[in-house]
TrEMBL record:
This is Isochorismatase-like domain-containing protein. Pfam families: Isochorismatase (PF00857). Residues 18-205 form the Isochorismatase-like domain. It comes from Paractinoplanes durhamensis. Keywords: Hydrolase. InterPro entries: Isochorismatase-like_dom, Isochorismatase-like_hydrls, Isochorismatase-like_sf.
């Protein structure tokens, strides 16, 4: 069973029951000139994850292991977006409004899709989720159960929002979660730092935190 150096201690995982989850690496969040940047965010804080994540995904695919992508977004008629979510953010820059890359966070729009560098390949699962967590109102639980998955290697954006929510949801459902510090990103450096600390604190209250090169080495052994 491979093991990687992690906080708060080594993380061991079984290659037959571990999936890589790549959360919301979407153009609306990551592209310069897009929705994320238009809200005043520094997208370079997220874009630094692209290169290590591409390397991890290549190694993961080469090892023939399951890879699941998620995309946060809504139907064009917004019927799956509750007012409590829709009414957030700057007026005229809300979900469904026209943005640089199409209607913001709407399924089928250019901005809703995953950045070119990390596009899914044939056979990989893509989960469209209306919430922050990847389990809420999606088929993720069923897919993991069907495939006998027990552990998740969690990556993507943003650390304190959709990554954290998904890890917490996964924890409550009995999954062991390893979060990769170099493959998750926040627009806010302080949230990145504290978000990662919160996962591994108290003996790993939500899971483990490591760096992607140690996972790549472990699966190539
Ligand atoms: C946000 C996400 N930050 N994917 N979404 O609204 O974290």
């Amino acid at each position: 069973m491979p093991a990687v150096d992690a906080q708060p201690g080594p993380f061991s995982f079984d290659l037959d029951s571990t999936a890589l989850v790549v959360i919301d690496m979407q153009r609306d969040f990551l592209l310069p000139g897009g929705f994320g940047e238009s809200l005043g965010n520094d997208v370079s804080q997220l874009r630094r994850t692209i290169e290590p994540l591409a390397a991890l995904m290549a190694a993961w695919r080469a090892a023939g292991l399951p890879l699941i992508h998620t995309r946060e977004g809504h139907k064009p008629d917004l019927s799956d977006c509750p007012p409590a979510k829709l009414n957030r953010g700057a007026p005229s820059m809300r979900i469904g409004d026209p943005g640089t890359f199409g209607r913001i966070l709407i399924q089928g729009e250019y901005g809703h899709d995953i950045v070119d560098e990390l596009q899914p390949i044939e056979g990989e699962t893509v989960i469209d989720k209306p919430g922050k967590g990847a389990f809420y109102a999606t088929e993720l639980s069923d897919i993991l159960e069907k495939d006998g998955i027990k552990s998740l290697v969690v990556t993507g954006v943003t650390t304190e929002v959709c990554v954290h929510t998904t890890v917490r949801e996964a924890n409550d459902r009995g999954y062991e979660c390893l979060v990769l510090a170099d493959c998750v990103g926040s627009y806010f450096p302080e949230f990145q730092q504290v978000g990662l600390k919160m996962i591994a604190a108290q003996g790993g209250i939500f899971g483990w935190v490591a760096e992607s090169p140690s996972v790549i080495a472990a699966i190539q052994e």
